[in-house]
Amino acid sequence: MSESREAAHPVWPRPGTMLRWLLAPTLAGPVLGFVWWLAAPGGRLYGDGSDYAAWLARDFAFAGLAALAAVCVVVFVVRAHDRFGFAGRSLAALVGSGAGSLLMWLTGAGLARVWGSLRSDPSVDGSAFGLQALSALALWPAIVAVVVLGLASILWSPPTRP
């Protein structure tokens, strides 16, 4: 009886579902990296990259975009909490969020190296467009992990015996 029940209600979703949950946040990373490079102080559109006061605002812009992306991922995870395979989807979304955050940083910094940033001064350390607080990379996956942990803790119920 338990074998047929497990077959009818799998713990892990199909591989295609897992791939979608992994790729969606991962592919959002380069898009957000492009937005970060455009919008952050010292990036392509405005700000002085050689002014050290703008470096904190640049990191906050990255953190804000990462938090916004995390909220979007969390909304989809919360909407799917009652479906079977919640653990697999959550894990895929968490790994995808980590990859998306890393790609966001690499895309923004790479675009600044290729097409330049606004008023960076090579003689000033740190004036090149980039992320000074590398801990901001952990913000996107951390928000996803905390919400998934909280959701699993609040909504968990013990398995029933057949």
Output mean pLDDT.
83
Helix content: 55-70%
Helix and strand sequence: HHHHH
Overall structural domain count? 1
Instruction: Give a count of the beta strands, DSSP E runs of length 2 or more.
Output: 0
Gross morphology is: elongated
Beta content comes to under 5%
Low-confidence runs of at least 5 consecutive residues:
none
Keywords: Membrane, Transmembrane, Transmembrane helix
Transmembrane segments: 21-40, 60-78, 90-112, 132-156
Report on the architecture of this protein.
- The chain crosses the membrane at residues 21-40, 60-78, 90-112, 132-156.
- Keywords: Membrane, Transmembrane, Transmembrane helix.
- This protein has 162 residues and is mostly helical.
- It has five helices and no strands.
- α2 packs antiparallel against α3 (53-79) and α3 (53-79) packs antiparallel against α4.
- The longest helix has 30 residues, at 86-115.
- The mean pLDDT is 83.
